[in-house]
Amino acid sequence: MADIQKYFVQFDEAIRFDRDVEKAALAEKRERILRKLSEGIKRQRVEGTTIPSYEPFNQGSYAMNLGVKPVDGDFDLDVGLRFDLSKADYPDPVVVKGWVHRALDGHTRKVEVRRSCVTVFYQEGGEDIYHVDLAIYSSGKRNADGKDYIAKGKPGQRADERRWEPSDPQELQNVIVSGRSGENAQQFRRVIRALKRWKELRLSPQHGRKAPKGIALTVAAHHWFEVSVKKDVFGKAIGYDDLGALKSLVTQMLSRFETVWSAEERRSVVRLRILHPVSRDYDFCSNMSSASMLGFKERLEALLAALNTALGAQEPRAACQALREQLGDDFPLPEGR
């Protein structure tokens, strides 16, 4: 079996956010947006709108150091805004989103209210190059059950499509990153970033089906990732094995697909449930159709086949070539046969 660990590390260096460039640019955009938001909220208060205080916090890939450079160049940053309000006092969460949208409208040429967030786009030559997603929350300090809730819905949607859903992104982040440290944590992050790049290439919207979100893949890794190392003839660990770790995770995911009866479609369908690690009552794949789920499974099987081919290759070039077909051209291709 060819040893290609150094190429996995090089691949990770090529696809991960550059801490000194991309992260700095996103952080600068974040601060500008938060200043504009503060000014806009104050203006609305002066005009007579009662708006509670709020606190911003980083969330998502940026906060967990799991960011991957997007193939299309549109970098994103997730920011949470926790408002000091009870969802019972604002049954229509779109009202709260409206405060944020009005505060930021005009900051750039394109600011949109989307179902899960308010998004500020930065463009260059008419193309999106950065965007910041602001997710709006109702504070658990104000809710009877003590839980945070995220605002879902947008203008034009029916009343039953506008709702507050339980969500605690900071607790989720803490659970995912806790218990892993040092090189084990680094391998965990490399495998997630590789899987996210694969998803962007093989499950993009142009394929016509909905893909699982990046957080779904991250939570899947939290549940089923296992550290993989190479060992010498005496069983002593001699280095990390990202190829083995990725194969193990993909194998675990495929083994958990189930055939279930869909009352809505009146037929059996395949599903993979990726449950929230804290509440266990939310499935990160629940919004995927049966067709999208089947496509997800088929593409995972194709990825596993490529990983097995790489594992069986005797030369590094052949192993890397098999992986490039799934992970893209950023995966190195060494010289030789």
From TrEMBL:
In the record, biological process GO terms are: defense response to virus; nucleotide metabolic process
Q: Where is the Cyclic GMP-AMP synthase DncV-like nucleotidyltransferase domain?
A: 57-137
Catalyses which reaction(s): GTP + ATP = 3',3'-cGAMP + 2 diphosphate
One GO molecular-function annotation for this sequence?
Answer: ATP binding
Question: Which keywords has UniProt assigned to this entry?
Answer: Antiviral defense, ATP-binding, Magnesium, Metal-binding, Nucleotide metabolism, Nucleotide-binding, Nucleotidyltransferase, Transferase
In Swiss-Prot or TrEMBL terms, this protein is called Cyclic GMP-AMP synthase
- Which species is this record about? Sorangium cellulosum (Polyangium cellulosum)
